[in-house]
M23 family metallopeptidase
Amino acid sequence: MGSIFIFSQLSSTSVSAQSESEVIDERMRHYFESSSELVPWYHLAAIDQYERNIQQVRPDIEKSPGPISLQFPLEYWIGALNPNSLDTSPLSISFFGGNGTDGNGDGVADRTNPSDVLQTMATHLAFYGPNEAEYKAALWHYYKREATVNQILAIAKLYRHFGTVELDAHTFPIPKRYHYSYRGTFGSSRGWGGRRIHEGTDLFAGYGVPVVATSYGVIEVMGWNNYGGWRIGIRDNHNTYHYYAHLAYFDKGIKEGDVVEPGTLLGYVGSSGYGKEGTSGKFPPHLHYGVYKYNGRTEWSFDPFPALRNWERQK
């Protein structure tokens, strides 16, 4: 998948604000209508957003035309032994062990109807329960992939914390009153630790210059890495992992698991890395900023330079 499309996600390029707002309002209405004490709205919203994310980067998955992106495999919906691939009867679907349900009370279990789709997932989640451990078990039973479960948990945590799905704002990682320089070096060769490519953009600045979060997200990793030195990894609601490396030190007010937003202070520019814990000074001070996309199967790096240029103009 080329970086142009992913850049459009990072830069929040979309249809007009009015139509986007209408779509979000419709999604929220569906989430609340299908929620309950056992199934909070943000649990449904996180799954739906995850499905939307992978549809945007996976050509092998059909994109949902409606406001809700969650889609179920046909066999899961109607039952593996059901001879009628067009079955929409809740009674016969249940008879053949299918999971499709009627969410809007019209007597039809329609695999393309948002209410029916969300109610089917809500029924699955309700069987386990509302707390995070139970939600995690429900996700594992359905997706059977740890990385997918962790991604959805992060999205749910963000939606619960902020009380909205409108979390697309971004900002430049270095505040505007500080001096810095950078250029596109994604893909260039690196030699330390073996031949590899540069998976990010280096922003050169003085020691101690603040580094802030570029997006909403959950701190997934924080600590030492022999390549990146003192580094932080943040997972956002678009299946994107934001990587901040070579820091001098972290802001003392943050820790793994914390929720951040654009502009949250993470740490300060340094030159740590390329060795055992505490190694510093092997290169000029700078922030290495990388972004990685997860598509439900694998995670890969893409060039953050276009997004950085866009956020720089916005600031």
